[in-house]
Design goal:
single chain; 388 residues; Rossmann fold; 8-stranded mixed sheet; two-stranded parallel ribbon; hydrolase; AB_hydrolase_fold; GDXG_lipolytic_enzyme; Lipase
Length: 388
């Protein structure tokens, strides 16, 4: 999940960059289009514009500068002190957003694309990319293949499922991350573009992911993959869909991947964990936006404890693939990761939990601003290289 709550929402009517200005940060021009900052225009405050500029500069500054800026002002939750760069990015989000106001679907999607463009690193030039189509739940869906050895066959492969609250995101928003994993892990990455809510509500997303996996396993030679060396992974909502796929494959009794990678996954829709309460006003992903995502994704009247929505309730955890779970200490989904790790281990599944106590939600998608995003990417890549 990444960016909007059960609150008033409406289109942004202000156009162009903030105040018609070019925002400058760390000595470089940075133009922020309207879909990302539009709630700021509704605030109409010069002080808020100043706060946005200031926090943008800190977010783009070296880590030592951010640490100095937030000296004595770093947030602490349950003993976990936030990383200075994460706080800078969070303060930028707070300067942009209007409390209780949710952007339109189109604005939310545009904001995630802009976030990736401005704060993530691009896919490495040495990684070859190829856009293809793959089976979905209802017809073909876009996908993208990343590899440094595109002509090789029988490649170890990660199938990647992007985050974005089942509402946002796509191949472009996670392009840099997928390319970097392909390079560092030395594997093929196949990124999926599943149908998004609210145009396509649950179970469209899980159905698309399942159909894609079955298509890959039905024709591994055509895809140049080794079916014995496969991993599936994703971040946030993509982590949810990864865990749901494991449930679906167990139910069907069909081949599972060797590994699963869950980056701050959403696995329990009840929202009753301690981190959901103490971090309800968290940076980047506050509780109202989590609720809004779920309302877009799951139709009214559906039991949200269904394992295809909340995979922690799956009766088929035993026998699942070895897991790597990453979570962030200033993310309401912190306990989702902790609890799913514990549930897998209790079911006899090998699971490794790698925690980043000072980080916020979506930090892996902000590697240009947050150094630990690159560190987390390397953790995932090294694990995949070792295990596949």
């Amino acid at each position: 999940m990444e960016g909007a709550g059960n609150a008033a929402r409406g289109p942004c009517r202000t156009e162009g960059p903030v105040g018609g200005e070019t925002l400058r940060s760390a000595g470089a021009a940075l133009l922020i289009p309207a879909p990302f900052w539009c709630p700021l225009g509704q605030k109409g405050s010069g002080m808020n514009k100043f706060a946005m500029l200031l926090n943008l500069a800190v977010a783009r500054a070296p880590e030592s500068v951010a640490a100095l800026w937030f000296t004595g002002r770093r947030k602490v939750v349950d003993g976990r002190r936030i990383d200075a760069k994460a706080q800078a990015l969070g303060e930028l989000f707070n300067a942009i957003r209007v409390p209780g106001v949710i952007p339109t679907i189109a604005e939310s999607r545009a904001s995630l694309r802009i976030l990736a463009d401005k704060f993530d690193t691009p896919s490495p030039a040495s990684v070859t990319k190829r856009d293809v189509t793959i089976a979905g739940g209802e017809g073909e869906r876009p996908a993208r293949i990343y590899d440094t050895r595109p002509d090789d066959t029988s490649r170890p492969t990660l199938v990647y499922i992007h985050g974005g609250g089942w509402v946002q995101g796509g191949l472009d928003t996670h392009d840099g991350l997928c390319g970097q994993i392909a390079l560092e892990a030395g594997i093929r990455v196949i990124a999926l573009d599943y149908r998004l809510a609210p145009e396509h509500v649950w179970p469209a997303g899980p159905d698309d992911v399942l159909a894609a996996w079955l298509a890959l396993m039905a024709a591994p030679d055509a895809w140049g993959i080794d079916p014995a060396r496969m991993a599936v992974g994703g971040d946030s909502a993509g982590g949810n869909l990864t865990a749901v796929l494991m449930h679906d494959l167990q139910v069907r009794g069909v081949v599972l991947p060797k590994l699963q990678v869950l980056i701050y996954p959403a696995v329990d829709s009840r929202g009753e964990t301690r981190s959901m309460e103490v971090l309800k006003n968290a940076y980047v992903l506050p509780r109202d936006r989590i609720d809004w995502y779920m309302d877009q994704y799951v139709p009214a009247g559906i039991d949200r404890r269904d394992p295809r929505i909340s995979p922690i309730f799956s009766p088929h955890l035993a026998g699942q693939p070895e897991a790597l779970i990453l979570n962030a200490g200033h993310d309401p989904l912190w306990d989702d990761g902790n609890n799913y790790h514990a549930a897998l281990r209790e079911a006899g599944v090998a699971s490794r939990l790698h925690s980043f106590p000072g980080q916020v939600h979506a930090f892996v998608s902000a590697r240009r601003a947050i150094p630990q995003g690159a560190e987390a990417t390397s953790v995932v890549s090294a694990w995949l290289r070792e295990k596949l």
